[in-house]
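Protocol step 4 of 5: obtain the predicted structure for the target chain.
Materials: sequence only (see below). No template structures provided, no constraints applied. The aim of this step is simply to have a reference model before the mutagenesis design in step 5. Sequence pasted as it appears in the construct record:
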Amino acid sequence: MIWLSMFWEFFKTGLFAVGGGLATLPFLYHISERTGWFSAEDIANMIAISESTPGPLGVNMATYAGFQALGIPGGIFTTLSLTAPALIVITIIYAMLTRFSESDAVKRIFYGLRPASTALIAAAGLGVAKVSLLDTALYEKSGSLIALFQWPAILLAIAIYFGLKKYKKHPVLYIAISAVCGIAFGL
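Step 4 output (structure tokens):
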């Protein structure tokens, strides 16, 4: 039964996560809360691994989630489940778009999808920031506002952001720097 449930959850994610890999995050958080197949911390690990490995982010995260829940077969299965809707939808859209590419309705649909994509990506970014930069468990124990923030991680995020903006080096460099900092400073 878990196989059917997992197929359905990742099929829905692939069907409705408009906007790319980060747009899958709200769906993954929802799956995590409902099923317990993986935790919010697992999702943070999925993001880190997915950003550090070749391939589309959403597909890598689905593979990781499936692997967490059901091992190698689960990783393969969730990858296929997530990508199946795209193959189906793209095939249908291609057939329709060639006939209606100049339609005002089609243009409006694409215009309307942009804010949805933006909102999904923003929600995902906020979720990642919460897991990566805040320590809500320590805050709840201590009650100290200072304990809420993971200061080394925040400083690293700020440094990486400014490094990206100022030096414009390849993202792999910043990923490697972050990994080294994580090992050296226990982030």
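Step 4 remarks: The radius of gyration is 19 Å. The longest helix spans residues 57-100.
Proceed to step 5.
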